[in-house]
Design a protein that fits this description.
single chain; alpha+beta; Beta-Lactamase; six-stranded antiparallel β-sheet; 5 helices; about 35% helix; about 25% strand
Length: about 170
């Protein structure tokens, strides 16, 4: 689906997830992704107009939000395909990014977009590292599957909210 940003943001806000507490189901997906990729960082993000909300994360100590402009996930939601950047320092989209040229000197990113039931890409499931990684076909397939599970959780959220309507 080609994304209209205003409609995408409206879909994100209908989920009523930004700024909410962590949830075990999302935490489990992040843990599995980090283990599969052997990365110290993994997250489920929700991409708002100006910031990224971390719904679940490993390895991002004390951070619940980040500026959207400084997030690799901003590129992931532009496509329905998995984004893999084995070396961020060599990718023209990211080589000048503050997280690449400065601490923590990020080198690797892989992410899939998360869609809500109407198809709007509202967030990501991603893994990151300060080391370069080569992604295997199995790892890529697992990230896509875990992303589908995270998107299903978003769908369940929509259904749950609908049941609360009078």
């Amino acid at each position: 689906m080609d994304q209209n940003e205003a409609e995408r943001l409206a879909a994100l806000h209908r989920l009523e997830l930004t700024g909410t507490k962590r949830e075990t189901a999302f935490d489990r997906l992040v843990f599995i992704a980090a283990q599969a990729f052997r990365t110290p960082i993994a997250a489920v993000t929700l991409i708002d107009a100006d910031q990224v909300w971390y719904k679940a994360h490993i390895g991002i100590i004390g951070v619940d939000t980040a500026a959207r402009a400084a997030s690799f996930c901003r590129e992931t939601i532009r496509s329905s395909r998995m984004l893999v950047v084995e070396d961020l320092a060599e990718d023209e989209r990211f080589r000048g990014d503050a997280l690449v040229i400065g601490a923590p000197f990020m080198r690797f990113y892989a992410g899939v977009a998360l869609s809500e039931p109407d198809g709007y890409r509202v967030g990501t499931l991603c893994v990151m590292d300060t080391k370069i990684h080569l992604v295997t076909a199995t790892q890529g397939a697992l990230l896509v599957a875990l992303g589908a599970d995270a998107s299903e959780l978003l769908g369940m959220r929509v259904a749950s909210l609908a049941l609360r309507q009078p």
